[in-house]
Amino acid sequence: MNRYPRDMIGHGPTPPDAAWPGGAKIAVSLVLNYEEGGENNILHGDAASEAFLSDIAGAAPWPGQRHWNMESIYEYGARAGFWRLHRLFTGLNIPVTVYGVATALARSPEQVAAMRSAGWEIASHGLKWVEHKDMPEAEERRQIAEAIRLHTEVVGERPLGWYTGRCSANTLRLTAEEGGFAWISDSYDDDLPYWVEVGTRDQLVIPYTLEANDMRFATSPGYTEGEQFFTYLRDSFDTLYAEGASGAAKMFSIGLHCRLIGRPGKIAGLKRFLDYALGHEGVWFPRRIDIARHWARVHPHRRRERPSKMTHSDFIARFGGIFEHSPWIADRAWTLELGPAHDRAAGVHSALTRVFRTAAHKDRLAVLQAHPDLAGKLAAARRLTDHSAAEQAGAGLDALTDAERAEFERLNTAYVAKHGFPFIIAVRDHDKAGILAAFQRRLANDTETEFATACAQVERIAELRLRALLP
């Protein structure tokens, strides 16, 4: 079975109404990463010093050595940056979510006490602030468990949220399998939360951001002054706020780091943005646990059949009749590279029509010839497929006058004699009069034109049938 695991559709063209509390037009999620004391350091048993996200241009690991300048920059985040941010957020009465590295939290008892006193959510940011991409799965699972254990010991309660950041391809699955997280955020793929199914676990994902993030002060291209950070946050806010005002409320995540945004010249841009956002009505500043609880209540997950995960026999049983009496199309479609994007009507339609379009001319002709005459003998004998019977009845073709029936029979006979296949039209798109008018007009076409037209109508019929079955 050829399956593609990445989800390229998500909520699709019509995302759900977030329905934020109080009718808020936007949910602004402020995240403070607390990593100071959890970074790479030979004091922590690591092979080299840290080299990531600091104000040292072109920093590189120092194998087997302490990097005094790097250490002091991280220490600034704990000693000065954290408290400057704490005063800002508590002064504005804005709650935040902390991504807390467990070993960093253990080395910062006064900061943890201040987080708790402020009512901030302290989520887990892993055991150590290190790279996980090459970490064996068993070791990553062990470190996740140890991070939870140490976090619980230091904070007084287990974390309900998780974000690794420097993650592996296994991280999201492993944290979901742990089973105790209300939300995880190792994803950057949406403006709204969403659910993923991991085994029997329905796991909420609250996507995060790497662009509305002060890490851009330490990367190139990036921000060089607080005003640039403010401008980007303001423009993002304005776009999302306008979408919310039109009934499509979204979430706006902002990523912060004590050692970066905690510097005086950088925090000024953040302060300017917060004042700007607070000047608008309908702005909700939730912790991520608040978002998770709201989403679970308003948009609980409901499992449904997913075509990309169906067995071969189930797929054919479900979709073998979409193209009239042609289950071979579903049979071949099942072997294509299907994935989450094919779990909706448009996706299954794409797979089926790909098979139909690339089939031999004789096979496509056989599909056309499998369709019944409109209001013909099979309809009179009630021997249409369920799909065709419902479609013809919906257009009133099951209740024709004698004159109308005679006209359909005349047109059917003339059309088949000329083209070699029945007249095909997506009757759900037309009423009885429109169908007759199209019949009379198309009868004059040449067979090549009608073959192409009939094939397009077959695809349209398939699309309408699938829309009745899937989202």
Automatic annotation (TrEMBL):
Keywords, ordered alphabetically: Purine metabolism
Q: Which GO BP terms sit in this record?
A: allantoin metabolic process; carbohydrate metabolic process; purine nucleobase metabolic process; urate catabolic process
Instruction: Give residue ranges for domain NodB homology.
Output: 68-286
Please indicate if the UniProt record lists ATP-binding as a keyword.
no
Recorded hits in Gene3D superfamilies, A to Z, give:
Glycoside hydrolase/deacetylase (3.20.20.370), Oxo-4-hydroxy-4-carboxy-5-ureidoimidazoline decarboxylase (1.10.3330.10)
Q: According to its UniProt entry, what is the function of this protein?
A: Is involved in generating a small heat-stable compound (Nod), an acylated oligomer of N-acetylglucosamine, that stimulates mitosis in various plant protoplasts.
Name of the protein this chain belongs to: Chitooligosaccharide deacetylase
Q: Which organism is it from?
A: Frigidibacter mobilis
> Organism classification, top ranks?
Bacteria, Pseudomonadati, Pseudomonadota, Alphaproteobacteria, Rhodobacterales
